[in-house]
Write a structure and sequence with these properties.
Layout (H helix, E strand, L loop, with lengths): L6 H4 L9 H13 L34 E5 L7 H10 L3 E3 L8 E4 L5 H10 L3 E2 L1 H10 L12 H10 L19 H4 L12 H12 L1 H7 L9 E5 L6 H11 L3 E6 L6 H12 L4 H5 L5 H6 L3 E6 L1 H7 L1 H13 L4 E5 L7 H6 E5 L5 H14 L3 E2 L4 H8 L4 H12 L4 E2 L1 H13 L5 H9 L2 H4 L5 H10 L4 H8 L3 E3 L16 H27 L9 H15 L2 E3 L9 H23 L7 H23 L4 H10 L4 H10 L3 H7 L2 H13 L9 H13 L5 H20 L1 H5 L1 H20 L6 H14 L1
Parallel strand pairs: 1-2, 1-3, 3-4, 5-8, 5-9, 6-7, 7-8, 10-11
Antiparallel strand pairs: 12-13
Helix pairs in contact: 6-17, 8-10, 14-15, 17-18, 18-20, 23-26, 24-26, 25-26, 27-30, 28-29, 28-30, 30-31, 34-36, 36-37
Bound molecules: adenosine-5'-triphosphate (ATP) and magnesium ion.
């Protein structure tokens, strides 16, 4: 284990810092210390001996109204920590300096473009110390009324004409109503973002009836549309609103429920009260009949859910669309391959996730209606970006926060986002791509524990996934940081890559050792974190970068290999058991010494002589007590078996099987289990009378005479054994018995018989 996990070895003891922020910067440094051999890999920005700084707790909203831009690496704080600090004191953080920027916080290696802009606009600059001083000394500011941007302010008041059921205050509405339902947009004005998509949808619906008359060409005129876009941004809402606006009676089918053809038929029947779907979708339907049906619009929601369970559903939907007499709006999140056929018959309208400023004012207004106070104006932005602009999520998160709090500050908002993130279920593929991706390693925000947390999502499968895929990654290596005198500078990168891979491999094998201890005879579950570090965190620390295979990460093939190995072991054992009378080798010897020879002898005659070789092969099989299943198994177990099987003519193979099945073959012995059961069955039978035994003996003797003449029966040892046993048992019972009919006496007699035999 050459990886130095013992942080005390690498990190000089740092004096204790009070703030959690400084802790995380410490963690970031600790991560750097994982890069073994500091002489080879010199971290660019390692501060020589950073002096710990106390992170100030400034006055409330002391940076309100000020805009900050960050450039370069700060001495103590990571960029993200510093930005959080500014935001939590009410300041705004933007990416590029402009005339409206209040300060630029400059660290080591600042961006040249930003420096130019600073000069151009004459913006005051701060270093880390000055920023901390500013926070320490700035006075508290009284909160301004909620929405900040002037545009947002005026729009918010317009927008919130939600007066229909007037959900003005939380006390008047039932608690159970979710904010996302309560504040469902009731007019197009209230819908944030995607204006052009909504316009297109409206245009399509407006033109629908005239297009029906002239006929749909599936080129520019479509009878249906497909709205695609990420969740929670108002696709379903927009479809309903436009439908109502254009005077349609909207019927929504959640496609997850109406997958199959039958279910779809039923669903449509309920819309039209027609008896058959054919009748309804018949193009020849007269215009009056169409009018009689009223103006109905069908929304097929979540059509991507349809294809998951039942492809027939999508095909059927395509058929409906081709013949439809009413407009159909299909909605999906991802239009993957499965929906390809649908895209041919639908006009596609893409919904984008709205920008922060498009959502901000609505979120703030809803919060103010619900009496949820935002301590800083930038909280809304943080929550919106944290939820990926999924408005449904945002409203749900805020409404559950409101259940126990009346206000929210910046840090709480961030924590809320983080907590909700944890509830997301990650599949092994997601986790693998996160660990192999550069973002979690570049961005120094996450510490080792965050990465270890990913391991706990899938602790069984993830190590295998890492093992399966780490060689497909081209590790991200900064060749400038490698110093080696003994190699050609051109080879430096290649060598660094190989070194990274070898370290990852070493760590994976350490992880495998932990795994065997965890799952060993004395399970040591306390090793789980160590296992996670060795099997997942360290390998991906060394090897993360670009997935060169270009494809999705592969599922561990070792799982498949294990089951195949077990199967091979099983069939090899069968073969060995069958051959035991002839051959005394164990499983391995059979596999290595006998099977190659048998393979040729059992297949070549069929290839070379065709049907004439069949009897030769069967004879050999009988000699070794191999049955047809064993023949198949030998072909499967041998190298090149597949190829050989192809060489055997199909008709020969069929004739071989037929001939084998039609003739009888020697059976080496009965399985131990069946002998046992017959024994126990015999034991459970009542002990025969002495006279009975005599009779059996006589019958057996007769049988013996017959069997002596019969070649085949003589081969069958079991039959002979049984009759002998019975007769001898009777004789010996007579000899040894004291006259009492006991089980013990009979059993003893049996033993004697065996010995004689
Ligand atoms: N653009 C928006 N403007 C205002 N509110 C919105 C918007 N988008 C979503 N919402 C809120 O989120 C809720 C859910 O929206 P909707 O059902 O339309 O999302 P969707 O895009 O259909 O999502 P999904 O893909 O998950 O079906 C709405 O009831 C509304 O409260
Ligand atoms: Mg929806």
């Amino acid at each position: 284990m050459d990886t130095k996990l013992d942080q005390s070895e690498n990190v000089p003891e740092e004096p204790k810092m009070e703030s959690s922020k400084s802790k995380s910067s410490k963690r970031a440094k600790e991560e750097d210390s994982y890069s073994e051999a500091p002489k080879k890999k010199l971290p660019k920005t390692t501060p020589s001996a950073p002096e710990p700084k106390e992170i100030p707790q400034g006055a409330i909203n002391c940076l309100l109204g000020k805009t900050f831009v960050f450039t370069g690496d700060l001495e103590n704080l990571t960029r993200e920590d510093a930005q959080d600090l500014v935001k939590s004191h009410g300041g705004r953080v933007t990416t590029a300096p402009s005339s409206r920027t209040s300060y630029v916080v400059v660290g080591d290696n600042p961006g040249p473009n930003k420096l130019e802009k600073i000069k151009q606009h004459n913006i005051p600059t701060l270093n880390e110390d000055e920023l901390l001083d500013l926070i320490r000394n700035a006075p508290a500011q009284i909160e301004t009324p909620q929405p900040t941007p002037a545009k947002g302010k005026s729009r918010a008041s317009d927008d919130m004409e939600i007066s229909e059921p007037t959900p003005s205050s939380s006390s008047t509405t039932p608690l159970s109503q979710l904010w996302s339902d309560k504040y469902k947009p009731r007019s197009l004005k209230e819908l944030c973002g995607n204006k052009s998509a909504v316009d297109n949808l409206q245009k399509w619906l407006k033109a629908w009836e005239s297009n029906l008359k002239t006929g749909f060409d599936f080129n520019s005129k479509f009878p249906a549309v497909l709205l695609a876009g990420p969740p929670g941004i108002g696709k379903t809402t927009a479809a309903h609103l436009i439908g109502k606006l254009e005077g349609y009676d909207v019927k929504e089918f959640n496609a997850s429920d109406t997958r199959s053809k039958k279910a779809l038929e039923m669903a449509v029947k309920t819309v039209t009260h027609n008896t058959s779907i054919k009748g309804f979708f018949q193009p020849e339907r007269s215009e009056t009949e169409v009018r009689k049906m009223g103006r109905t619009l069908i929304i097929m929601d979540e059509v991507d859910g349809m294809s998951a369970g039942d492809r027939g559903g999508v095909a059927e939907l395509v058929q409906l669309i081709k013949k439809t007499q009413i407009p159909i709006i299909c909605i999906c999140n991802e239009k993957g391959k499965k929906l390809q056929s649908l895209t041919n018959v639908c006009q596609e309208i893409r919904f984008q996730k709205p920008r922060v400023e498009q959502v901000r004012s609505r979120i703030m207004t809803i919060a103010s209606r619900e009496d949820l106070k935002f301590s800083q104006p930038n909280i809304a932005d943080e929550i919106i970006t944290g939820a990926n602009a999924d408005i449904r999520q945002i409203l749900n998160r805020l409404s559950s926060w409101k259940l126990s709090n009346d206000s929210i500050n910046y840090n709480e908002g961030k924590a809320l986002n983080k907590a909700s993130e944890k509830n997301v279920i990650l599949d092994p593929f997601d986790i693998t791509s996160r660990l192999f991706g550069t973002s979690i390693w570049n961005n120094r925000a996450g510490n080792v524990n965050d990465k270890l947390e990913l391991y706990y999502h899938e602790s069984d499968i993830l190590p295998l996934m890492i093992h399966e895929n780490y060689l497909k990654i081209k590790p991200h290596i900064n060749s400038n940081t490698i110093e080696r005198d003994d190699v050609n500078p051109d080879d430096l990168e290649q060598i660094a890559i190989l070194e990274a891979i070898s370290k990852a491999a070493a760590s994976i094998s350490d992880g495998a050792m932990c795994d065997s201890m965890i799952h060993g005879s004395q399970p040591q579950w306390s090793l789980m974190p160590v296992h996670g570090i060795f099997s997942c965190v360290i390998p991906t620390y060394y090897v993360h970068g670009i997935n060169t295979s270009g494809a999705r990460y592969a599922f561990p093939s070792s799982l498949g290999q294990i089951s195949r190995t077990n199967k091979y072991k099983r069939i090899l054992r069968e073969i060995q058991i069958h051959m035991r009378l002839k051959v005394s080798g164990d499983k391995n010897e059979i596999r290595q010494s006998y099977l190659p020879a048998l393979f040729t002898a059992l297949s070549q005659p069929l290839i070379e002589k065709g049907s004439d070789g069949i009897s030769e092969v069967i004879k050999l099989m009988d000699q070794y007590y191999l049955n047809k299943d064993d023949w198949d198994a030998i072909m499967e177990l041998s190298f090149g078996g597949d190829k050989t099987l192809k060489e055997i003519d199909k008709s020969v193979k069929a004739a071989f099987t037929k001939k084998y099945n039609s003739s009888s073959h020697p059976v080496p012995f009965l399985k131990a289990s069946s002998v046992k059961s017959s024994k126990t069955a015999a034991a459970s039978v009542d002990v025969p009378d002495f006279e009975d035994a005599m009779e059996v003996e006589e019958v057996a003797k007769e049988e013996e005479v017959v069997s002596d003449d019969d070649e085949d029966l003589s081969k069958d040892k079991f039959i002979k054994q049984k009759s002998n046993e019975k007769s001898n048992a009777a004789t010996s019972t007579r000899r040894t018995s004291t006259g009492t009919k006991t089980r013990g006496g009979r059993g003893g007699g049996r033993k004697a018989v065996r010995k004689i035999k």
